[in-house]
Specification:
five-stranded parallel beta sheet; Rossmann fold; single chain; three-stranded antiparallel beta sheet; 569 residues; Isoleucyl-tRNA Synthetase, Domain 1; binds arginine; alpha/beta
């Protein structure tokens, strides 16, 4: 891995501070990490001195005091507070460095060239994409953008659920009761209805089970028969629906590879497992025992009837991806309810002795709940994702009608606000926590919401528009005028670190939080610093640059999360 520390934002000051400390106490630079002081007023960085007190043979507060006296760092002052040494960046270099860094396009970096696979969304065909699929889609897309921004070579993979015995059932159901008319009117709803009916009637009528078994055998035979053609048609119909959702979110995939894509590799997979000596027979089925790996449930890779399973296809997919991409990391953005499945997947590969298994990582996330309860198909209440998006856009349109009925392109902006609200609401939560979905909260223009960020961004655009001139060059401004924007510069200066940490922890929430701080500081800035109409040209120029820096930073962060940034709203 190549990790040259990128010096963006506040990091430009962190390195010289660490180097100075390193020279003064003779500790390896890598061990000197800076934290955030407890209160913003204390400065931008803090060094907890107790970590080095033992080696220095001094009590932590004494060491902090000694260092405060000894250190002399350009543009940075330091002060000991108890066992902490706090660093405060001088106002002028702070404004200048942060503005310059945020204005440049090469904004973050460090891990150029790593190959990162992000598998996300992966809905099941012939079923509606429901709200549960929203989290994987939104989180996976955000992570893909974040890694791309940091210079990784990202491969976005959609592992569609398009294979398995349930599709035998579906085709058999279609042959019995399918209606072309219903299929073209409400395609997915019709397929779901057929499937549910089959599932139910199967219990009373034995011929159904036999039919679906035969259909699946026809599918698995690999021959181009009627069953396969029907299955393919269902896949295509489903994709039309899924693509509508992806288009609205502005999401693309590099590889659309459903489970069926690995069909031809499944026999080889089982053979490979046999060769590795990890398989056993259990009641006619082929399993891999994982007890030594600390997992009680063995992995079932082939049923007694000789059919393969979800797990077999995931094993084949993992191996095929390794052979094709030689990935540095391979992430699976899939709900926490599949944790055992991914533990088993990795454990099987580990038993096979492959090193690359360690580069695979399940990225779980919590459930999404409406204020009235859980949103799952299992409880019989399917809330289609498209309907949720429509509702959000409808509410956004209503609020535009109330607040700004003259707005041009109202429909486009309503779509941007509606979608942005939902995406941001999802990403502002810690990934593993459940998300409670309350419409009032999602769409509020105040508080920690997407529309609040969008509004702040649009305010900046409006100021820049009204200035009726190009944004001045940063070489043309007097940075001392911007010294008062300390809170804003610090907030903006922390974004690059938030982006990097979001990548390391696979946690887009860190960017969401950083953006909320930036927006809050930005709102304070333009409230307290009149930009236009002061009659002071230098002041106006510097403040226009400030507003432009704020706008660009918000736009960057929102783009990474997938929150649209309209110029007017
Ligand atoms: N299709 C599955 C579902 O909707 C998710 C697939 C997750 N990815 C995987 N490689 N198993 O539940």
């Amino acid at each position: 891995m190549t990790t040259t520390p990128p010096l963006h934002g506040l990091d430009a000051f962190a390195l010289p501070i660490r180097q100075a400390v390193c020279a003064a106490i003779d500790v390896d630079l890598a061990l000197i990490s800076l934290e955030r002081p407890r209160q913003e007023e204390l400065g931008e960085f803090a060094l907890p001195c107790f970590r080095f007190a033992k080696q220095a043979q001094m009590a932590p507060p004494a060491l902090a005091a000694k260092l405060a006296n000894a250190l002399s760092i350009e543009n940075v002052s330091c002060e000991a507070v108890g066992p902490f040494l706090n660093f405060k960046i001088d106002a002028n270099p702070l404004a200048q460095t942060i503005v310059t860094s945020a204005q440049s396009s090469t904004y973050a970096g460090g891990d150029e060239g790593l190959t990162t696979l992000v598998e996300f969304s992966s809905p099941n065909i012939a079923k509606p994409m429901h709200v549960g699929h929203m989290r994987t889609t939104v989180i996976g897309a955000a992570l893909s953008r974040i890694f791309t921004h940091l210079g990784h070579d990202v491969k976005r993979i959609n592992h569609l659920g398009d294979w398995g015995s349930q599709f035998g059932k579906l085709v058999a159901a279609w042959q019995r009761w399918g209606s072309e008319e219903a299929l073209s009117a409400t395609p997915i709803a019709h397929l779901l209805e057929l499937y549910v009916r089959y599932h139910k009637e199967e219990k009373e009528d034995e011929t159904l089970a036999a039919d679906s078994k035969q259909s699946f055998q026809e599918l698995e035979s690999g021959e181009e028969n009627q069953t396969r053609a029907t299955w393919r048609k269902f896949t295509e119909i489903s994709l039309v629906e899924f693509n509508k959702v992806y288009a609205r979110f502005g999401i693309e995939f590099d590889y659309l590879r459903g489970e069926s894509w690995y069909e031809g590799q499944l026999d080889d997979m089982i053979n490979w497992l046999d060769e590795c000596g990890v398989t056993e027979l259990s009641d006619g089925a082929t399993i891999v025992n994982l007890e030594e790996q600390g997992i009680k449930t063995p992995s079932l890779v082939k049923t007694a009837h000789g059919t393969t399973l979800y797990a077999t296809r995931d094993l084949a997919a993992a191996k095929s991806r390794w052979e094709e991409f030689a990935f540095d990391q391979s992430l699976y953005v899939v709900g926490a309810e599949q944790t055992l499945h991914f533990q088993q997947l990795k454990a099987v590969l580990s038993r096979c002795g492959v090193e690359w298994e360690q580069r695979m990582e399940h990225i779980p996330f919590g459930l999404i709940r409406l204020t009235e309860g859980k949103l799952s198909t299992r409880e019989g209440r399917v809330i289609a994702l498209g309907d949720v998006l429509d509702r959000s856009v409808e509410l956004a349109a209503k609020s535009i009608e109330e607040k700004n009925p003259e707005l041009p392109n109202k429909e486009i902006v309503a779509e941007q606000i509606g979608l942005g609200a939902i995406v941001f609401h999802d990403l502002k939560h810690q990934r593993q926590k459940d998300v409670v979905f309350d419409w009032k909260e999602v769409l509020s223009f105040e508080g920690d919401t997407g529309p609040y960020l969008q509004y702040t961004h649009a305010r900046c655009c409006s100021i820049l528009r009204r200035a009726e001139k190009d944004v001045p060059s940063i070489n043309d401004i007097d940075f001392s005028i911007l010294e008062g924007g300390r809170e804003l510069w610090v907030a903006i200066g922390r974004l690059p670190q938030a982006v990097r940490e979001a990548a390391i922890k696979r946690e887009p929430m860190l960017i969401a939080n950083a953006l909320l701080k930036i927006a809050a500081a930005g709102n304070g800035f333009y409230r307290d610093n009149q930009v236009l109409g002061t009659g002071d040209n230098d002041l106006e120029k510097a403040r226009l640059v400030a507003i432009d820096t704020l706008r660009k930073t918000l736009a960057l962060g929102m783009r990474l999360l997938g929150v649209p940034a309209p110029h007017e709203m």
